[in-house]
Amino acid sequence: MQERLEQIKKQLHSEQFKLTPQREATLRVLLENEESHLSAEEIFMLVKQKSPDIGLATVYRTLDLLCDLKIIEKLNFGDGVARYEFRTDDHPHHHHHLICLKCGSLSEIEDMLDDLEERVERDHKFKIVDHRVSFLGYCENCQSEAE
Ligand SMILES: [Zn+2]
Ligand SMILES: [Zn+2]
Ligand SMILES: [Zn+2]
User: Fold this and answer.
1) Closest ligand to residue 137's CA
2) With respect to CATH, is domain 2-86 assigned 1.10.10.60?
3) Cα 138 to Cα 65: distance, rounded to the nearest angstrom
4) Which residues does the annotation say bind Fe cation (predicted)?
5) Domain 95-146 in this protein, CATH class
6) Which of 19, 39, 57, 113 has the fewest Cβ atoms within 10 angstroms?
């Protein structure tokens, strides 16, 4: 984790930004909860435990900055809550999300859309640069409850 932090620090410096203690605290929370797709409020609550003086606006500004620098990505699952996760360098996203409409649980599946992209490009002569897909439905737990 220290290594990732150093890497991001370098990236910030190369874009003329400093890794302030507030930014570092926010990044640490993001790194510690990498799998969690935290919302800004959740990130704020966790950062506040470590740095009680930090304000929500500072956390928001840090998240915006990290998004601008393409270090993290803002995800919108249509529930009105923005969530954040780290971006992978080689491909804008390696995975897609399954979102349960009942309990709100979120899981990841690998990207299986390369073939589909090829077909769309071929059939519609459309050059695809990105796609956004979320799968909405009911997780295993919620399915059995409904029965
Ligand atoms: Zn569920
Ligand atoms: Zn994810
Ligand atoms: Zn994809």
Assistant:
1) 1
2) no
3) 34
4) 94, 131
5) alpha beta
6) 57
